[in-house]
């Protein structure tokens, strides 16, 4: 019975641990849901949709209701001293130089640009999340490496202490080992601090969620696999598409500025009620009037405002086009750098594997020679340092590979969000 209870308790503890485990996929999902940069861009996109709606309102008629009351101390002929007017007016713009159409199209292009910008932000956050997640695992491995080095120095110190008590080594050799052990302990403390900061950085990207009691799972290599990368896909980058939509929006704004060269035609229908001498019986003083009106206006000169606005939008278009060209070059450079980094990372990983294998073998040889009294404490210390550096080099190359793959995936926008 006790065994069953113990088994149940162990299973419960196991499930509790796994319930609080955070995988890379989980981290990406949480970032897409809770990251504040994404939320801010999403609000920009929602605002752009409302701008489209507001510009659509220009195609609908306007209905206005008004009431006015006039009191004069001396009434003129044909007018009462007290007079009220209630009016209901329906108006509609028949033509305004295509300005409404241009503004509507401009707002649609800006909305599409905002949507592309939102997607670009999501792509960036996914990469930042993967980088922060991998950085945390790298710091965790660094801590494990420094702890291992510290343990080896502790063992070396105990061996050296025994040798010193037996008169086999000088005191300065013992002190040197003790200093190296203290230095290794400092590395452990610093690595613990770096790991804590890395966890805070990951938490911030995920919207500030509490990761204090979360276990960060080891990297699932199947989650990050290298693909075949096609340079032609760079043209579909969200940043490029957003700038293209912005160019189209500026074109439409230039058209709206040219609307000032055309006449404007407005039509309206109103129904008015007049109330005279309101202090008397209003029922007997009511008069109705219906008015239909069509008005055409054409501005002949407005100080050159329209021509200046047209030139401003032409300049804005040229500027935006320059930014687009530069962005394409920057993205191409990003792609070439990322490819190069992946090639370097793969080469470094193979080299670091061999270096780690050699460092482990070297430490084992030196440790055996030290135990036999052939090698000195300095030789063992050097072998420990080499082993620590080899472990760090392998860990760094291992994680650099996945960061390079994630960066390439982001540059070609492998995932769609």
From TrEMBL:
Keywords: Cell outer membrane, Membrane, Signal, Transmembrane, Transmembrane beta strand, Transport. Residues 1-21 form the signal peptide. The keyword Membrane applies. It is found in: Cell outer membrane. The keyword Nucleus does not apply. GO terms for molecular function: efflux transmembrane transporter activity; porin activity. It holds the Pfam family OEP. It comes from the Bacteria. Belongs to the outer membrane factor (OMF) (TC 1.B.17) family. This is RND family efflux system, outer membrane channel protein, TolC family.
